[in-house]
Predict the structure.
Amino acid sequence: MEIHIKLAFKRNHFKEANKMISKEKIESCLKTKILGRKIHYYQVLSSTNKLAKNLALHGASEGTLVIAEKQTEGKGRLNRKWFSPNGGLWFSIILKPKIKTFEASKLTFPISLAIAETIRKTFNLNVEIKWPNDILINNRKVCGILTESVTKEKKLKFVVVGIGLNVNINLKEFPENLRCSATTLKEELKRNVKLEHLLCELLFQIEREYELFLNEDFRKILERWKNFASFLGKRIKILMNGKLYEGIAEDVDNEGKLVVKFLDGTVRNFVAGELKYNLI
Ligand code: BT5
């Protein structure tokens, strides 16, 4: 009997020791009105976006947060994989903005702005945003955002915003092919960061920018966003549908499209694509 109790205690103790995020700590530091007011926490999950989408399809409310300490099938855009070991912040938020379906892609801007501002303000790090959805430090990706919209009869039902932020992870844990292009807050700061506090701060800033976005302040958001967009004015390459274009990144227009001026003087606005600019 005593042995059983001791073993159970050891198992629980081991489980707790493995936990880096506490749901209770998140709840106690939250400063938001809607974001994170309902939390689904997992130690291991396939993908927080996948579960959040499912929950939203079954009626989960706006602001619902899904967070996992580790993802086994973390998703990037276009079916790419997102490396999500212990030590990162991997989470998704359900949003139900009353906007037109085509405007949902604009949400990436207030979200990325909120993340960049939080990292800069909290850690005094030199953060950049790479159009459309990457957050970089010293040209290396520290955070990615995956926005997935679900529509019904052409109307926007909900949006799941998935955020992957590399926090307390050593670069040497990353797969070799990512070690040159990725970074983590631990790598930049040479110390660990309290995950719950950072999450609470992020949710607070995201909610603020989201409210501004809903109040049709997109242009103002974009102006502030451009302060982090150091690719503007640079020579860039952009890969879209398997074709590589080269030119100057002139601007991001009021729809969030990237305006590229080609070497022959013609201009094209890109809705999507893979931007490369530090390689030239
Ligand atoms: C993204 O895609 O950047 C969006 C990533 C979103 C991840 C979050 S985590 C919580 C939520 N649940 C999910 O399942 N997903 C979201 P994309 O722009 O396609 O970038 C993907 C590419 O980034 C990969 O092909 C790799 O080259 C690189 N990559 C993968 N894992 C990375 C990591 N942890 N840090 C930096 N780069 C990474």
